[in-house]
Amino acid sequence: MNSLYKKELINREGPWQDAGAVTVATAEWVSWYNNERLHSACGDIPPAEYEKDWLMGQGHTIFEPEAKAS
C-alpha cells in the first residue's frame, strides 16, 4: 500500500510546498482509493460499496453520514 501511495501521489504530484499540502492530498487520495476507485476483485465497484453491500447481506444496519451543505 505504501509503495502504491508513494508512486501514485507523492512522487507524481511533488514537489510539495509543505506538510499541510501533503496532508490534504493524502486525505483526498485515501478517500478516492476507498470510495471511488473501481476494484476488479470487488466486481468492478469501489471497495467501500462492496463492503457496504456485504454488511447489508449479513443483516447489519448501515448508517450513512449526512451530506454537508455546500
Helix content: 55-70%
The overall average pLDDT, rounded, is 89
Oligomer: single chain
Could you say which overall geometry the principal axes of the C-alpha atoms support?
Answer: flat
Any overview of this molecule?
The protein has 70 residues and is an all-alpha fold. The protein has a domain at 38-65. The protein has 3 helices and no strands. The protein has helices at 2-13, 19-35, 47-57. The longest helix has 17 residues, at 19-35. The chain is flat, with a radius of gyration of 15 Å.
List the SSEs and their pairings.
Elements: H1 2-13, H2 19-35, H3 47-57
Features:
mainly alpha, single chain, flat, 70 residues
Short structural description:
The chain has a domain at about 40-65.
